[in-house]
Structure formats: structure tokens, C-alpha cells
Batch of 3 targets.
Target 1
Amino acid sequence: MKKGLYKTPLKSLLPPGMVATKKWLSAQGLSTHTLDNAVKTKTLLPLCPGVYSQYSRQLCWKGIIASLQRMHSIYDREQPSIHIGGLSALALTTTATAAKFAPHCWLNSPHPISINLYTEHKLPAWPVKLVHKLALPITITTHRVKLLWPSHIMSNRQFLMLDEWQHGLPPVYYSCPEKAILEALIEIPNTLHFEQADKLMRQIPPLLPKRLDELLLACHSIKVKRLFFWLCERQNYSWLSEIDVTRYNLGSGKRVIAQHGKLDKFYSITVPSHMCELHQNMPYSE
């Protein structure tokens, strides 16, 4: 490649505000020699081993996540194999609500925030290293979805939403509210308390029954499905009548979720004693 001509493909492959790995840039047709020259001429800025950006714009966390997703798209489509989910996705949907029940996931918070990434595969090490090196006020937590979602849910565009965070740059993909709430519930009682989940269910926007139906049919987690229905019935949602609980595999046997809690006899899960109000005389049919 003639001197300086590499700048044109680099500009399209690596626009300001984005990052890219050496491996990915090489896969797009740029040689090691070209990349080395770009570093020498200060066209490329090495951020951490094997990761570059342009010099012309400061990076933010959304640029890093959008870059990660672009480089891990499925079969060369725009559909990413890694996306923001759970509480972080709900925070993108409605920041004010997220701030009330999970301040660490409030994405405009002045305090350090937690970004929950969901993937079928192991996350590369460079995003965490880069966030640490740039001293960005976020932490990245990876969630493997094997116990929650089959592959066809992770690759289905209808369950993702887009955050057009910067004009002209790739968006950040995150779970739709129906998918995000199920991803969040799997964290009960470890990083999400029953009381927080109950408040969350009161404040999230209306969910779409048709979308929920497909997700609940596909969901691997018995715990998540039982918790979801238990929490929904506490809120008495109008749309809940459109969902037939008997369509879904809720498993058999008891699930101890709240230690030293009380058994909800309908869904056969233990919940905090002060929240156990429903179904005490209505055993769930196994």
C-alpha cells in the first residue's frame, strides 16, 4: 500500500470514537506493516496490547461497547453476539426507574456504574483492561447465558433494542424490556433483592405479551419463570390475562430462593415471609 493510502480504509474501519483490535483490522485486509506505519505516523493510537483508536476523539464507554459488538457480530451481520442485558438494559430503557432500584446501573450516574454484558461465549480480556487503563467510571460484568437462553434467542433481532449514542457510528445493542427483566431476575437473591425486584416490576413500562410468550417458552431457567409469574401477580397487570401460565415448563419440586423464607405453595418457591401473600391455599399443579 502506498504511503498514506492506508488512512482512507482506516477512517472507514475505525472512525473516531470507536476502537478496534489488531486481529479484527487484519481480518478486514490491513497488513501488520500497514498498522505499524499507522502507529508510527500517529494515525493509530495504541490503547492497550493489540487495541487501537484514532487520536482525534476521546473515548467513552458506549464507544467501547459498540466496538466490541461490531467486532463480534454474528455471521458478518449487524446482529451482535454480545449485548447489554439485565439491569443495565433496563437502565437504558428508563434511566429514572433504574436509578431508584439499582443506582449502580444508572447509566448517567456520577458514580461508577456496572455494565452487564450477556454472551454465549467467553468475553475477550481487552474491554476490561481498556476500561481500567482509561480510568472510565464503569465496571464490566460478563454473564454466560447457557442457563438462561438458547442460541436462537441470542441471535434474534426482535429481542434487541438500539441506542443511537452517536450520529454516524454503530449503535449499542441491548435487551428489550421483556428479555432484560428475565435476565435480571436470575440474579435474585444474590445481587438483586426481592424487594428491589418487586419495586422494579411496579415501575417498568408495560411488557408485550407476544414477546414475553416466546421468551418464556424458550427460557431454560425454572427459577426465573416461577419468580416472574410470582412477581407479576403481585402487581395484577392487565396484560397478564393474555399469558397462559400452563403453556410454560415450570418444572417440578420446590425451589429454595429466599433462605429462611416462606414457601409460596402455588409456585413452590421460598420468598421473604413478609412478601408471601398469594396462593397459600392454591398448590401449584406439578
Note: Confidence is low (pLDDT under 50) at residues 96-107, 280-286.
Target 2
Amino acid sequence: MSTSMDSAARVMSGTHGEAWMDDELCGETLGLQAKVAGNKEDVPMCGQFMVDTKLMSAKGTGSIRFHKVNSRMAIKMSDNLKAGRDTRVKLISKLDDPDAYGAERVVIYDASFDDLTLADWEAAAKGRSNARLHSRAGSSWTWSSRDKEGNTMAEKKQNYEPTTVERLLGACKREPQEQLLLFKSWTDETGAPVVFRIRELSYDEVREIQQMHAGRDIAAAVITAGVVEPNLRDASLQKACGAATPYEVVHKMLRAGEIEDLQAAIEKLSGYRASTLEILADIEKTERG
């Protein structure tokens, strides 16, 4: 999870950085840079004006800079260079600023140096040496960060308790519910029980029914809107019932008790006629003087 910056002190300072080479601390390190660049090729596509790209490989590059204190790099690389061998090392970059939110650690395996500065100095200037490096084919690198309690980001994510807003981001668009209802004392002409499929009504649908049918046949309006199958607006069903409207179908096809129960079932599915909330805890407010 991202962390907002509440102070300039949170910016990580390279002064607190460390560089380790083959598990040995390089105390004279002045700076370290490591990058991974993707090698991409253009992919022209028909019907698309802009040229897209395809990632084909990756290349690790970087550099490490030292105060001139010793001949560390010359000693490490000279014998291999003379013999025509490539020097490979494990580099660890660690940045742990006590004012920052956490620490960062990057490990580069199988790093190879492209050059070696044998001598570079001038009068009245501090001695420095540089070495450019590559992370060659077959090598790998890892990255990790931790907070002040020592938890890595993976552990922090595992133990993280999302906020209510974060929980709702993927749940605010709820799919409407449906149910199948069987009429206990009603069968069709073949003797099979009659089953209705109902759906929940949205807040806007309920408000529209209340406004359009205030004091008038709300039960038939709720049933007509909430019954998916059978389609109460079907002309053949209306004709069979001797009805001119879906509301008349409800009155002529269903018994009085069935109308009441069916209306109640649709309203319950829509969140009415039953409590949808549960009290978890009472929040006590501190009295202010």
C-alpha cells in the first residue's frame, strides 16, 4: 500500500546508504545506481496508426562510485582482466534512513564490471573512482522493502486490514438477487407445482411505484415489477385470465393471501420488511469540558 508523505523528513537520503560487494561492506562508497531497461521492438499493426512495441528482453546496467581510499576494484578485477576472465560479484544496495517510513534493499546477482579506473586524480581535488556494471545474461536481481517494525511489504500486505472504503471498491456494484418461489396449493393443468421467479427491486423502482400508486394497488404494482417468470404482461396470459392489464392478471390469477405473500417476498428480497443491519458495538463519545 502506498504511504502519503507528511513531512520532508520522509525523503530517503543517500547518506544512509550502504553498498556490499560479495558480502563485504564497501565503506568508501560514494554512490550506487542500478537500473533495468527493457529492450523493445516496434510492432506495426493494421488498423492502428500508432506503432506499438513488444518487450523482447531486459538489460541491467548501473555504476558504483567510491572515494579513493584503497585499490579495492583494481585488486578484485586486475588478475581476471589479465587472464581474460570476467569478474562477477554479488552487489547489495541498502538504504535505511531513520526518518523514512521504511528501508529498501536491492540484491544484484552475477554483476559484471565494464571498466576499471586505474588512475584518476588531480591537485586540490578529492580522489574518486568509478566502475560501470552490467547484470549479465543468466543473472538475476531481487528487491525488497520493509517498514520500521521490520515487516516486508509482502508481510505488510498480508497483515494489512483494509479500510471500509477499500472493502467497498469491489462490492459497491451488487448484482440484483433473484429467487424461485413454489406455490404450495397451486398446480398447473398437468399437476406440476407452479413456480414463480422473482427479483429484487432497486431503490428507484420502489420510489417510482410509491409515487405513482400512492394509496392505490401498490401490491399489484410490486408484483408486476418483481415477477420475472411468468411474464405478467404477456398478451396470451392476459387473454387466458380475461384481464386487460397486468394488474388485473395479478387479481384474477392469484388468491388474496398469495398476493400478500408474493408482495412480501419481493419486498424482503429488496431489503424491506426485515432488518438488514446488526449492531456490532456502541460507540461511546467522550464528554468535552
Note: The mean pLDDT is 83.
Target 3
Amino acid sequence: MSWIIYSFISLVAFSIMVILITGQTKKGFSVPFTLAFVVGLWIPFFGFWLLWKGVDFFISGQVIIILISGGILAVIANWCTFKSANDSPNPGFTFAITNSSPILIALAGKFFLQKELTFLKLIGILISVAGIIILIFLSAGKREKKKKWWIINSLIALLASAVFAVLIVILLDKGVCSVVILFSTAVLGFTVYFFWSRSESNSLL
């Protein structure tokens, strides 16, 4: 199957997930609880896939450190993303910023991974950055003065997701199976979100 088809499937699936999660958080469910529920659904799927394919789980200590680092970044990126989406004037504003991570990935790829960065790609990056700046300044004039933290959370999510993507590239270059990466990230994410949501529940009692 072509990478373009995979990209469109991912676009549709992720958009539906965003709408559902944001809808639940706006109804009053906490972000950690909602993410724990969603990520918890991924674990059996990825685990079954790994068992079915018979993937070797033996990985080096260096890879384990990268996996843990990537999982922590994914937790930060997801929480900041959906916290921002819940507080922003429009969830689309949040994802216009966080989905700009390819900008940072392209720059990191150029300087750290020796990836190509053409003049045309650089022009595209500059246009994207200009769009983000315009979006932030336009939203600054909105009435939600007390909710300006959504911008900060969006930028943190942007940075965390970009570094996470770079770590994924490094892991893939080392021959680590992509589903192993997803499974490890899901397990770590579920653990953090679960205990985070529990601590929030206990603080309300």
C-alpha cells in the first residue's frame, strides 16, 4: 500500500480521535483519565500484533534509554496537546501549531541526522512559521485572556513531538520494529496517565 494512502488513513483516524478526546475533556473528564483510557486500548492491539508476528523483544540498553525518553516525550506532547485543545478558542488552533512539528524535524534532520534540506523546503518552513506567528497573534486578541496557556502548551507539545519523532527515526535506523516503539510508548503512557488520573481523583476526595 502506498505511503500516501497510509497518510490519509492516519489523517482521518487521528482527526476522529482528536474530536472524541476533546469532546470528552470539554464534558469535564480530565485529560490524564481520557488519555489513559484511549492509550490503554492500544496496548492489547500492539501486543497481539507483536506476538502474532513473533517479533524479537531483545533490545540493547541504549535502545531502552531512547525508548523511555521517547515515551516520556510522547506523554508530555499528548497531555499538552489535549490540554491546549480543551482551553483554546478552537481546537483547530492547537493542532495548527502542534502539527507543524515537521518544521523542527526537518531542521533537526539537517543538522543532526544529515538529511537533505533544499531551498524549496526552507521556503515552506518559513511560510509555516509565519502562519503560526499570525495564528498566535490573532488569537491573542480574543476574549479568552485567562486561557492564554493554551499557546504555551501547544508550543511545548510541538517541541516534544518533534524530538520524539527524531528519536523514532534513530530507533528505526537501529533496526527497532515500529510496533515495538508504539507498544513501549503506549505502556509507559498508560502507566503515567493512569496514576496521574488516580492522583487527581484522590485530590478531589
Note: The longest helix spans residues 61-87.
